[in-house]
Amino acid sequence: MTTPVALTCGEPGGIGPEIALKAWAALRSDCPFFWIGDPAHLPEGTPFQVIAAPGEAKAVSATAMPVLPHPFAAPAQPGTADPRHASDVIAVIKHAVSLVQTGEASALCTAPIHKKALIDGAGFTHPGHTEFLAALAGVDRVVMMLASDQLRVVPATIHIALEDVPATLTPDLLEGVIRITADGLRDRFGIAHPRLAVAGLNPHAGEDGAMGRQEIEWIAPLLAKLQSAKYHLSGPYPADTLFHASARAKYDAAICMYHDQALIPIKTLDFDRGVNVTLGLPFVRTSPDHGTAFDIAGKGIANPTSLIEALKLARDMGRMI
Fold first, then answer.
1. CA distance 287 to 280
2. Which of 62, 63, 220, 262 satisfies CB 3.0 to 4.6 Å to 153 for a cystine?
3. What range defines the domain where residue 204 resides?
4. 159 assigned binding-site residue
5. Do the beta carbons of residue 76 and residue 255 sit within 8 Å?
């Protein structure tokens, strides 16, 4: 029997419930998953069926969206973040992680959450979704990868101000990101010898020190050290030459130095199909590459493509375990 993917509800006032329904309608038994949340938050008329355990999802998926119910303390108002949902959103995530850890679900796919609502309603102390999952898994360091059929990118630093990047980006951090990425591509994507291209921090990768010295002083020496340890690395490259078609053909993932250096190219190339993958966890986790989209929630116009791709990738990665 195919072990299904667990899909968390995310913030009920966002687009999560409606794109979950659209994803089920598109995938059905081709990618069995079950949604964990309050059935009352689903769009009116949703053909769902309550299940008692994840193992029932496969048989249900052809005709109804399988729902593992978790009653919430408050109703959902599309377009509105409600702090009263916070404790239940957190509980759903914890439940989903436990199901993946016990093997009842093959992988975890998470719908977007609203951090401020979690802080206001439950005193949420983690920087974000990914860090919370790492804490639940007992892992110190994880890596965010954005993946599509056209490109995989990994930002070494993520949600920090640009002025803080040079101090945050240390040899230890970059080495950890490279090692986790290489291990993830091998173990989760089935790439025996992952090829990683590394971008420089500065314009023109520093241009021999004229525009910054990090590339000379420690980035290139670090790459040489890891190359001697049999990592398939190249760079540091000027970021503006790293993402055209012929360059992308030469690597399996690009390691970037900061958020926009990684996310601008993938969102330009494949905006709707990008998937957020967390590497370094002891289980598979994917997520659509967008937020709660309160401005369009409840209007029935949200695009489910990223969630569909996230569920499919979670299924495929789960099979690698």
1. 15
2. 262
3. 144-272
4. yes
5. no
Instruction: Answer yes or no: is 232 a known binding residue.
Output: no
What is the reported pTM?
Answer: 0.93
Whether residue 63 is found in the same domain as residue 118: yes
| pLDDT of 1 strictly over 80 | no
168 known member of a binding site: no
Segment holding 189, helix H or strand E: helix 171-189
Q: Does residue 27 sit in the same domain as residue 90?
A: yes
The verdict on 109 and 148 lying in the same domain is no
Is 130 annotated in a binding site? The answer is yes
Q: Is 276 annotated as a binding residue?
A: yes
Write out pLDDT tens, residues 125-179: 998 899 999 999 999 999 999 999 999 999 999 888 999 999 999 999 999 999 9
Question: pLDDT digits over 198-224, tens only?
Answer: 999 999 999 999 999 999 999 999 999
Task: With beta carbons less than 8 A apart as the criterion, state whether 210 and 192 touch.
Answer: no
pLDDT at 21 > cutoff 50: yes
Report the C-alpha gap between 296 and 286 in whole angstroms: 23
DSSP 216-280: IIIIHHHHHHHHHTT-EEEEEE-GGGSSSHHHHTT-SEEEESSHHHHHHHHHHHHTTT-EEEEES
Number of domains composing the chain: 2
Contacts of 113 (CB under 8 A, 6+ apart): 10, 11, 89, 93, 129, 292
* Same domain, residue pair 265 and 295: no
CATH (domain of 244): 3.40.718.10
Q: Both 132 and 8 in a single domain? A: yes
Average pLDDT for 82-106: 97
